Amino acid sequence: MRIDVFTLFPEVVDHYADSSILGRARQGGLLDLRAHDIRSAATDSHRSVDDAPFGGGAGMVLAPEPVVGAVEAVESAGGMPRPLLLLTPSGRRFDQGVAAELAGSEGFSLLCGRYEGVDQRVADHLVDGALSIGDYVLAGGELAALVVVEAVARLLPGILGNEASAGDESFADGLLEYPQYTRPARFREWEVPEVLRSGDHGRVDRWRRAQSLAATLRHRPDLVRDRGGLSPEEVAMVAELGEVRLLRDHGYDC
Ligand code: ADE
Q1: Which of 17, 117, 141 has the alpha carbon at shortest distance from 59?
Q2: Which of 9, 102, 196, 253 to pair with 63, CA 20 to 30 A apart?
Q3: Closest atom of ligand 1 relative to the 87 alpha carbon
């Protein structure tokens, strides 16, 4: 998969993307990530990329010329994958569903905003859409772009060591993940739950499902509502964990 990133900090993007899972994916040829420097398309002698907002107000706005220039330079050198998506807090919310959508595509490109924003003509005439990684404001789109790249890349076939791991985790089925443990079975006075050491796969599956349901109800009741609540069987499973108070707090009789 090819992903092009337009940024004022290509070295930051490259550096992160050279380590860990992304680094391996790049080395193995599964991920063709190209970071392009917006400043290389600046035309004035100071190589400036920003200017004060028309109408007044604090901060600086990323100007249209270097952004459009950087994108057009790549387009005329053979092109980059579309859609081109702007990272901005006012974009469409990025979640696991969008990650899966992008992972199923041939590739895409990302444009990192900076300063107080990007000239609106870039949003209106250059990009194909906008993504936000959450309801908070970062100083720029680089971290957001890396979040998108990593969430997408780890879904690509062959990238995770264990092919099963991407399907069996938080959000894959609209629920948060159950807790995981490894050796030692006892660390200090903290024990791994007995059921996980029992060797009884039926009990393990039921416990994990119940833990997922309880964690989602506790931390993300909106996700439980989105899937239509808990069935009576699921309520019984969560009750078996001793989470009767949690269930009652969310309006379930048990
Ligand atoms: N740029 C600044 N804040 C952002 C956010 N929350 N998501 C995406 N891009 C951003």
Answers
A1: 117
A2: 102
A3: 9
